[in-house]
Amino acid sequence: MMISGTHWLMILAVITITLFAIALLIQKRNTEKKNAPPLIQTFHQMLIDNISEYNFALNKNHITVVNNDKKIAMITLDDRQKIGQRKLGEMVIFNYHKLPKYQKVLEQLAKI
């Protein structure tokens, strides 16, 4: 018995829909994992509330500081990195092991 063209189209449609559904599930699962830790979210909100001269963008493991549509700094809270600051191209990266006070961050941003 031979399978007609209509059956082949139906089989192809089912396979396509199944693969599309799997891709959506994988994408949803990956985006759920990209949420920032609560400590960084708290720090981000504290910066927004207290420092109005800069814009702050929250990413998965760091906060990007933007001034005049230009990324000027990145703030990370990471125990594995050395405390301090370093330069990456034109952007300065500040690393802390624990939550700093916003006055200290403002002081360091003013030096840029």
Count of the separate structural domains? 2
Model regions low in confidence, pLDDT < 50 over at least 5 residues = none
- Which structural class best describes the helix and strand composition? alpha+beta
Number of strands: 5
Helix content: 40-55%
How would you sum up this structure, described in words?
This protein is α+β, with helices and mostly antiparallel strands. It has 2 domains: 1-34; 38-110. It contains 3 helices and 5 strands, in the order ααβββββα. The protein has helices at residues 5-33, 38-50, 102-110; strands spanning 55-58, 62-67, 70-77, 84-88, 91-96. It has a 5-stranded mixed β-sheet, covered by helices on one side. It is elongated. The mean pLDDT is 86.
Walk me through the topology.
Layout: H1 5-33, H2 38-50, E1 55-58, E2 62-67, E3 70-77, E4 84-88, E5 91-96, H3 102-110
Parallel strand pairs: 3-5
Antiparallel strand pairs: 1-2, 2-3, 4-5
Summarize the structure.
The chain is an alpha+beta fold. The chain has helices at residues 5-33, 38-50, 102-110; strands at 55-58, 62-67, 70-77, 84-88, 91-96.
Keywords summarizing the entry:
112 residues, alpha+beta, 2 domains, five-stranded mixed beta sheet, 3 helices, 5 strands, 46% helix
